[in-house]
Amino acid sequence: MAAGDLGELLVPYMPTIRVPKSGDRVYKTECAFSYESPDSEGGLYVCMNTFLGFGREHIERHYRKTGQCVYLHLKRHVTQKVPGASGGALPKRRNAKLFLDLEISSDLNSDDFEYEDEAKLVIFPDHYEISLPNIEELPALVTIACDALLSAKSPYRKQEPDSWEEELQASKHAKTLVQLDNGVRIPPSGWKCSKCDLRENLWLNLTDGSVLCGKWFFDGSGGNGHAMEHYKETGYPLAVKLGTITPDGADVYSFDEEEPVLDPHIAKHLAHFGIDMLQMQVTENGLRDNDIKPRVSEWEVIQEAGVKLKPMYGPGYTGMKNLGNSCYLNVVMQAIFSIPEFQRAYVGNLPRIFDYSPLDPTQDFNTQMAKLGHGLLSGQYSKPPMKSELIEQVMKEEHKPQHNGISPRMFKAFISKGHPEFSSNRQQDAQEFFLHLINLVERNPVGSENPSDVFRFLVEERTQCCQSRKVRYTERVDYIMQLPVAMEAATNKDELIAYELKRREAEAARRPLPELVRAKIPFSACLQAFSEPSNVEDFWSSALQAKSAGVKTSRFASFPEYLVVQIKKFTFGLDWIPKKLDVSIDMPDFLDISHLRARGLQPGEEELPDIAPPIVIPDDPKDRMMNHFVESLDIDESSVMQLAEMGFPLEACRKAVYYTGNLGAEVAFNWIIAHMEEPDFAEPLVIPAFGEVASSGAAALGAVGLDNQPPEEMVAIIISMGFQRNLAIQALKATSNNLERALEWIFSHPDPEEESDPSLDTVDMENNANANILAETGSEGPRIKDGPGRYELFGFISHMGTSTMSGHYVCHLRKEGRWVIYNDLRVCASERPPKDLGYIYFYHRIPS
């Protein structure tokens, strides 16, 4: 076709062709809906307007939905080198400019293969193709757009090793920082803000040693801003976040420079307050960890080293690439997608999720969950190697690479967006990521049943005043059973003492260590420790109207469908060295915790009076006036303190209790989950103006909405408790938008009318089209799947290393009657599953 003809062919589409600008994400290495890439047989189609990439089976969907017609098709061809080619050289690459960010497949020996990259424009719906480069015949705008797209950098670049932590600048205050000689020594644990008692997002001021809470900036976690206030009062510029201190450094923030910074003298500054971070690099006698190693390490046992393991292929046996300390994500997702409820919710609903996904599916949680689930379960990316004779035959023409595992770059980039830890390239705690994922699942409903409900259970907490003997019963929601390690119950104490003596002698003489002896802890002892009473710090007794000694015990008010058990192995030593308890616990294959069922108020027990503790009035007149109004709001302070003990910001807890009408900590907890991403989440509660009626939290949620619809805030609260939207609206309408009465109405109407209000359907579609299209009819009721407390083990996650900030994770899952080990890309039949060394265990309820 002549140059003029090509120009005329593209004229109708010129308004839709864009040149990538700074900030545009160009997905030229991976499909938005699958793990197809230019390496795949069908190549990858990149939209010349949205810059999204699509595999061959998904390109038609994007064309139909958007009407975009022009795509850049990218394909990499892999062929065997001709005999006699120089060995040991890098593979030959023609058209090298095309795919600067494409990796060479690790499955292929670069000495034996060469690569040829091909690009062409494809015009839909006729699939008309224009080969590139074709600079002379194409319009200038098209040529510039193609060149810019092909040379664009990876949209994941910030997620990879050159992350923000390597771009930090040394603080101008680091070298000349003045530290007060005030005798302050910081303990290795038990920190809390000295002004508000908050126990999360705490910062140590490096000048005077003050421990104060942060604000919702740099770190992203909640706080009341007392660290910033302290800087404004004193001018002390640098603070380090407690909990981030490792031998390699720590997170340091400069209030004066208003950004995260490097402190080249951080070791000296921390030592001033008794924190010897450099000591973390070495053992107690000064020998480095890699100088002396035990003969049998947990690395070898957990990864089943030294045993020939048979690789597993096919659906459900797909590995995941480690993106650099992303094994914590890999193991959690492998465990999650071994659960049928998650498989049905995402993979079972995949066609509908994809069809109703937003225009940018890379930024949609349900789409990316469905994509990952399909990648793991389809078997499409887990195929056994071809037989040698087939390989030889194929190599005579063109090599078609076998996909071995998937790379979760797009998934990690999306779910970690805005999170200070998961968006970094550092190792993370798998338990924290599990809860982060559950939070996202809760906030992104995929149908009438939320798959995370299988983990959800109610905990009954019984608090008793030791002096008056009166009690208070409360309930809260949880997803994980955390078991303490009962070290004092070790059954091999004599062996441990003998080993410790031999170990010290060997270290002193610099000889090899003796055979490792782990503490053997009975699981029954850990379960007993979980059920025993614990002291309540700063307990205020409403019976005595004063602080007193208090104890708390926890029981299960409901048992979940899937029980997740975390062994609390990680701690700090007195010398601030992060330590993991290297123990062996005889975790049972079958677990019965029926005896931990909550029983509620017992005969003869007397409840503590429902009286809130007094509010301490500060010296600041403004704060005094504020507290006067807060006190008049009649906020249930006991609920506030329950939430604050979970680590949420105090002001957010007050708002949660206020806006849910003092209905208890559980309802307020659901409000927190639904609102924690809002920018003003931790801001103080806005008090009604003087003279304005400050009604109860339920009535203060707002007037009746448009078209006689209940206030959306009240609807959201009821939905967050596990009820369907149409039921929430129906209950509120029936009770004149009284939240407390609406909940009573729901429980008194277990079988609501099947006929729905047409107006509700319209509102539902407008508010959440995807969720409602996927919704199916289901029974109403709280999102608790209660049942017997008998369970069977089906999976566990193990950690190797000295702390959650380092090391490696692997996962063992029981599938088709046998144990399978998932070690990033490597998936094999397990021969010796180390069930006694796990960190997180997954149990499934045994049907009664």
Write a structural description:
The chain is α+β, with helices and mostly antiparallel strands and 848 residues long. The strands form 7 sheets. Strands 14, 20, 24, 25, 26, 27, 28 and 29 form an 8-stranded mixed β-sheet that branches. Strands 1, 2, 3, 4, 5 and 6 form a 6-stranded mixed β-sheet that branches.
Short summary:
Strands 14, 20, 24, 25, 26, 27, 28 and 29 form an eight-stranded mixed beta sheet that branches. Strands 1, 2, 3, 4, 5 and 6 form a six-stranded mixed beta sheet that branches. Strands 8-7-9-10-11 form a five-stranded antiparallel beta sheet, with helices on one face. The N and C termini lie far apart (73 Å). 27% of the residues lie in helices and 17% in strands.
Q: What are the main properties of this structure?
A:
27% helix; 848 residues; six-stranded mixed beta sheet; single chain; 24 helices
Query: What percent of residues are in strands?
Result: 15-25%
Tell me the distance between the termini: 73 Å
* Mean pLDDT metric: 80
Could you estimate the helical fraction of the residues in percent? Answer: 25-40%
Low-confidence stretches: 85-98, 159-166, 216-221, 280-295, 620-632, 688-707, 752-782
Query: Rg, please?
Result: 30 Å
Structural class: alpha+beta
Number of strands: 29
Number of continuous helical runs? 24
Q: Overall 3D geometry?
A: globular
Described by strand count, sense and barrel closure, the largest sheet is: 8 strands, mixed
Catalytic activity: Thiol-dependent hydrolysis of ester, thioester, amide, peptide and isopeptide bonds formed by the C-terminal Gly of ubiquitin (a 76-residue protein attached to proteins as an intracellular targeting signal)
Keywords: Autophagy, Cytoplasm, Hydrolase, Isopeptide bond, Metal-binding, Phosphoprotein, Protease, Repeat, Thiol protease, Ubl conjugation, Ubl conjugation pathway, Zinc, Zinc-finger
Family: Belongs to the peptidase C19 family.
EC number: 3.4.19.12
